[in-house]
């Protein structure tokens, strides 16, 4: 660990357990074995606010993925896991959730340091959200059933059984913004249905998943059920997406990479879930409490420094309140504390790394060049920085890059509208369809507008909520399939019909 990072941990104080984890060598977890980098390459893991190196992680290889798939296959076909009763699986999954709960502060600190996010929010949202999700899916393990059916038109007497079977070995590829939570969003359904898995965390933020793997072993989950291979997307991710021994691929990340993953997976006819990018619209009507709605819209885009797939990143605001609303937004944004994740009260933390910082600032530059009016924030003025101020643009047209493209940073593009129809048309004028939000006190309007929005979720008078019981996923270029909710389970199950002739 670089001295700058060590000083950072000392300055704000972290648990001894967190420091001890960050200081020990990191290993992959394959078939219950801890695999060191050895002769493989190792990636540096950076803490971006200090610029220092936290640790190194092994750069997994195609052979590592193959070994992990074999271990997962063995457990799925013949191992102890395949013989467990659903209730025994439920107990094991809950034991794992208990261990996460027991280590929640450490997991939150690891997430805060690795991603660069507020420590408290990492605890409340990332880790607690992951624990809740795991418990929710533990409950499903005993409730997955098929059905009996009578053929509708077939002559003669028949009875049919429609069976639900676990799909097999699941390849799971996660992004860097909510590493633990996104991984668990996939793992809950994997374990509840009796599947096994090979997980690849994002190379920028693998640490919480590696700490989690230690808890997997401690919980007594049989070796090979959960395997973690760290490394790059082009090697480890691609090897998972294209591996013939993988029955289902579940991917969260950008639309461009999702298409590559889908193209590879379909060669093996692997089942596929793709949770992809977004450019989610927010519609603010004239009847809102302006102060309250502006705060909610601001939190919707500035939470996690805007590095959120379903962030409301383009807001259309009724013309009659447009300027007043912008003034409230700017006021709220200027009050958000900027600082490193471990510092108390920080809300806007560093971008995850240099590349993301450059992407976000290049979009701010583009917004200015394209003629959008800068209401607050803008380009960092001290040259090299890890932080981007919360930024709001006004009078954007739907043809501007800041309105069309996913920036994945604390940047809100806005425009005004006159009529409800115009607002809906502006909202739907996007290749993405992950989420949307409506702010109004008119319930009739909610029921008129929500069905017309082409998005996987419509949030009314708040933004950013997720819940394990409610499906999450996109329309259009934002993805295929759903995570969470009972709807997710079917993506991890095969359906088999057994015909019984009774005559
Ligand atoms: P990314 O697409 O660059 O990477 C995602 C994962 O894919 C990483 O683990 C990466 O290593 C891996 N990968 C990269 N190239 C690969 C390849 N050729 N084959 C297989 N795997 C490969 O995305 P990111 O930058 O990590 O995350 C940001 C993106 O994720 C944004 O677009 C965001 O909207 C999206 N996201 C979506 C959701 C959702 O639920 N819809 C949630 C979080 C993030």
What does this structure look like?
With 503 residues, the chain is α/β, with parallel strands linked by helices. It folds into 2 domains: 291 residues, Aldehyde Dehydrogenase, Chain A, domain 1 (3-Layer(aba) Sandwich), CATH 3.40.605.10; 188 residues, Aldehyde Dehydrogenase, Chain A, domain 2. The strands form 6 sheets. A 7-stranded mixed beta sheet has the order 14-15-16-13-12-18-19, with helices on both faces. Helix 3 runs parallel beside helix 10 and helix 5 runs antiparallel to helix 7. The longest helix has 22 residues. It starts with a helix and ends with a strand. Nicotinamide-adenine-dinucleotide binds next to helix 10 and helix 11.
Task: Give a quick rundown of the structure.
The protein has helices at 3-12, 16-23, 62-77, 80-83, 86-102, 104-116, 119-140, 179-192, 207-219, 233-241, 255-267, 290-302, 322-334, 354-369, 401-404, 420-428, 443-449, 485-489, and strands at 28-30, 33-35, 42-47, 52-58, 147-149, 158-166, 169-173, 196-200, 226-228, 248-252, 271-275, 280-284, 312-318, 373-376, 391-394, 411-417, 432-433, 436-439, 458-460, 475-476, 479-480, 493-501. The protein is α/β, with parallel strands linked by helices and 503 residues long. It has 2 domains: 3-276 and 480-496, Aldehyde Dehydrogenase, Chain A, domain 1 (3-Layer(aba) Sandwich); 281-468, Aldehyde Dehydrogenase, Chain A, domain 2 (3-Layer(aba) Sandwich), CATH 3.40.309.10.
């Amino acid at each position: 660990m670089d001295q700058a990072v060590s000083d950072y941990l000392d300055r704000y104080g972290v648990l001894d357990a967190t420091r001890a984890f960050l200081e020990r060598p990191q290993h992959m977890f394959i078939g219950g074995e801890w695999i060191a980098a050895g002769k493989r390459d190792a990636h540096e893991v950076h803490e971006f606010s200090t610029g220092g190196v936290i640790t190194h992680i092994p750069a997994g290889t195609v052979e590592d993925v193959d070994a992990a798939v074999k271990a997962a296959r063995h457990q799925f076909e013949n191992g102890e896991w395949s013989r467990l009763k659903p209730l025994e699986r439920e107990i094991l999954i809950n034991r794992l959730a208990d261990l996460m709960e027991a280590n929640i502060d450490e997991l939150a600190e690891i997430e805060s340091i690795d991603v660069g996010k507020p420590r408290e929010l990492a605890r409340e949202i990332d880790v607690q959200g992951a624990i809740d999700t795991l418990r929710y899916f533990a409950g499903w393990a005993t409730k997955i059933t098929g059905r009996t059916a009578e053929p509708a038109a077939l002559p003669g007497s028949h009875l049919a059984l429609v069976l639900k079977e676990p799909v097999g070995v699941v390849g799971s590829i996660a992004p860097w913004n909510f590493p633990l939570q996104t991984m668990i969003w996939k793992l809950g359904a994997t374990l509840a249905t009796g599947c096994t898995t090979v997980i690849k965390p994002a190379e920028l933020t693998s640490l919480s998943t590696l700490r989690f793997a230690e808890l997997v072993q401690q919980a007594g989950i049989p070796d090979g059920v959960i395997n973690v291979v760290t490394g790059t997307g082009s090697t480890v991710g691609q090897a998972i997406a294209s591996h013939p021994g993988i029955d289902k691929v579940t991917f969260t990340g950008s639309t461009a990479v999702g298409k590559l993953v889908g193209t590879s997976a379909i060669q093996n006819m692997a089942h596929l879930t793709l949770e992809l990018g977004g450019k989610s619209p927010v519609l603010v009507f004239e009847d809102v409490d302006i102060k309250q709605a502006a705060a909610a819209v601001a939190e919707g885009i500035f939470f996690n420094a805007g590095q959120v797939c379903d962030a409301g990143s383009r807001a259309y605001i009724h013309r009659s309140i447009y300027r007043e609303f912008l003034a409230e937004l700017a006021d709220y944004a200027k009050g958000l504390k900027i600082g490193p994740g471990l510092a108390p009260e920080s809300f806007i933390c560093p971008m995850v790394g240099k590349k993301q910082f450059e992407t976000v600032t290049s979009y701010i530059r583009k917004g200015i060049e394209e003629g959008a009016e800068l209401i607050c924030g803008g380009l960092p003025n001290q040259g090299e920085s890890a932080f981007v101020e919360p930024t709001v643009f006004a009078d954007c047209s739907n043809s501007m890059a800041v309105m069309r493209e996913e920036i994945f940073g604390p940047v809100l593009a806005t425009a005004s509208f006159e009529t409800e129809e115009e607002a809906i048309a502006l909202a739907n004028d996007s290749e993405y369809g992950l989420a949307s939000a409506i702010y109004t006190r008119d319930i009739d309007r909610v029921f008129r507008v929500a069905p017309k929005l082409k998005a996987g979720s419509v949030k009314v008078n708040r933004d950013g909520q997720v819940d394990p019981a409610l499906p999450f996923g996109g329309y259009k270029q934002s993805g295929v399939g759903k995570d969470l909710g009972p709807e997710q389970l079917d993506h991890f199950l095969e359906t088999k019909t057994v015909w019984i002739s009774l005559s």
